């Protein structure tokens, strides 16, 4: 890797304009720093549905968050006290949160209180370690020629942001886009696994992790997010809407898959509309009931973990989410934990709800596009909300 100090401010500005600044978590494009704290303190009685949730179901997810939050002084007391709470007593858990936390309603920059909740899940793909037969689509490991440069040491306001690129002569240029990765042989030898469905491989990148059943060894492994090529995430659903191929209210994951299958000659066009490309690493599955690790570094809990924009909601924090079930007006109000981030998860009132593993979770996630309100719970000892 070339020394960071040799890049110089001019090159940094050009590189940033090339959309190659990304955070450490997943493929989130460079966020803007909010001009004001979008948090409004309220009482628990003002949180609709607060007293109706089964807090026992959220407790394991909160304890997982504490494994990471314990390192932060402002969270240490609450996480320490949590060890004394009876996990089988829902009322005791509710009293714990009310004693140690203050709820803050998340508010958009325009002052509105309503945002968007979508869903994601951990898919299952079929694959093999060697190319052959129907297994023609590669999942790549992180390429050795991709440079990753942390900017925080020089620009503290870019904490969590990194440059990704490659060296050509004595110049750093943006790393290859999806089209360049897929259409050349330059990635030969960097294959992690081979799978049998290019659209499933694409959605695996959108989800960030998944499981692959290896038909040659009869084993299932997890492929987890390892890095990203530095290009911004762009929605292929939005691309189809803008092209007039799908109406705005029919752009679910299922609708996109159906369009893909009925337009085989335009498959590459659709996939390349998103230049972002995710690289994976292989992990063993020690407990099939546990989800993949999110950006917080702890396993996700089905229906109790969400992805958030960390510029507004601290990773690890409890969040009370008020939304509705997919394609329904049935209330879905529950305590969840902010344990992940994502490329499309931007703005204060914005959540991606983790449904879990498998086809049923995928059906729910693919249909979820609901209005939502959110309240983040922060330790009472904070004089002001602390975002990290």
Low-confidence stretches: 1-36, 383-388
The class by helix and strand makeup works out as alpha+beta
What is the number of helices?
Answer: 10
Instruction: Give the termini distance in whole angstroms.
Output: 28 Å
* CATH topological fold name: Barwin-like endoglucanases
Sheet of most strands: 6 strands, mixed, barrel
- Shape, per Cα inertia axes: globular
Topology at a glance:
Elements: H1 8-17, E1 21-23, E2 39-41, H2 55-69, H3 73-82, H4 90-100, E3 101-106, E4 115-122, E5 124-128, E6 137-140, E7 147-150, E8 161-168, E9 171-174, H5 178-182, E10 191-195, H6 198-207, E11 209-214, E12 219-228, H7 236-242, H8 253-262, H9 267-272, E13 278-283, E14 305-307, E15 318-324, E16 331-340, E17 350-357, H10 359-367, E18 369-379
Parallel strand pairs: 4-17, 5-11, 14-16
Antiparallel strand pairs: 1-8, 2-3, 3-18, 4-18, 5-10, 6-10, 7-8, 8-9, 11-12, 12-13, 14-17, 15-16, 15-18
């Amino acid at each position: 890797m070339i020394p960071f100090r040799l890049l110089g401010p001019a090159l940094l500005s050009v590189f940033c304009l090339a959309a190659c600044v990304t955070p450490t978590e997943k493929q989130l494009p460079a966020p803007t720093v909010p001009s004001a704290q979008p948090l409004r303190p309220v009482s628990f009685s003002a949180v609709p549905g607060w007293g109706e949730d089964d807090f026992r179901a959220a407790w394991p997810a909160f304890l997982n968050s504490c494994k990471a939050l314990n390192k932060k002084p402002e969270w240490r007391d609450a996480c320490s006290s949590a060890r004394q709470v009876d996990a089988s007593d829902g009322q005791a858990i509710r009293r714990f949160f009310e004693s140690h936390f203050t709820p803050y309603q998340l508010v958009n920059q325009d002052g509105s209180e309503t945002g968007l909740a979508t869903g994601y899940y951990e898919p299952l793909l079929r694959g093999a370690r060697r190319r052959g037969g129907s297994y023609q689509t590669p999942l790549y490991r992180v390429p050795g020629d991709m440079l990753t440069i942390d900017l925080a040491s020089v620009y503290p306001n870019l904490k969590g942001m990194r440059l990704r690129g490659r060296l050509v002569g004595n110049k750093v240029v943006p790393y290859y886009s999806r089209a360049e990765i897929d259409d050349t042989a330059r990635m030969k030898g960097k294959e992690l696994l081979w799978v049998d469905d290019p659209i499933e491989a694409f959605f695996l990148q959108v989800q960030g992790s998944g499981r692959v059943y290896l038909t040659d060894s009869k084993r299932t492994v997890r492929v987890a997010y390892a890095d990203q090529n530095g290009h911004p995430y762009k929605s292929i659903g939005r691309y189809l809407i803008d092209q007039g191929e799908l109406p705005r209210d029919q752009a679910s994951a299922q609708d996109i898959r159906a369009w893909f299958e009925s337009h085989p000659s335009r498959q590459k066009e659709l996939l390349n509309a998103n230049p972002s490309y995710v690289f994976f690493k292989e992990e063993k599955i020690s407990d099939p009931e546990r989800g993949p690790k999110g950006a917080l570094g702890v396993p996700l809990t089905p229906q109790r973990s969400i992805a958030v924009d960390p510029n507004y909601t601290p990773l690890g924090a409890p969040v009370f989410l008020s939304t509705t079930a997919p394609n329904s007006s049935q209330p879905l109000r529950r305590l969840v934990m902010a344990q992940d981030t994502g490329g499309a998860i931007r703005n204060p009132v914005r959540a991606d709800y983790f449904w879990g593993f498998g086809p049923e979770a995928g059906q729910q996630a693919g249909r979820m596009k609901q209005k939502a309100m959110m309240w983040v719970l922060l330790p009472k000892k904070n004089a002001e909300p602390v975002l990290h």
